[in-house]
Amino acid sequence: MYLFFLLLFTKTVADLVKKHGLEDCQSFIHLLDRQIIDSMQTTTEHCSLLMGAFALDVYHEGAFYVEGELFILARKLQTFIEHHGGEVKLHCKAIHVEKRGALFTVEDEYKQRYKAEYVVSNLPLGQLLGLLEERIVQNLSPKIKERQGTVGACTMYFALEERVIPSDSPLFQQVLTGKGVAEGEHVFLSLSKKGDTLRAPDGYRTLACSTHVHLDGMLIVNKC
Question: Is the pLDDT of residue 204 over 60?
Answer without folding.
Answer: yes
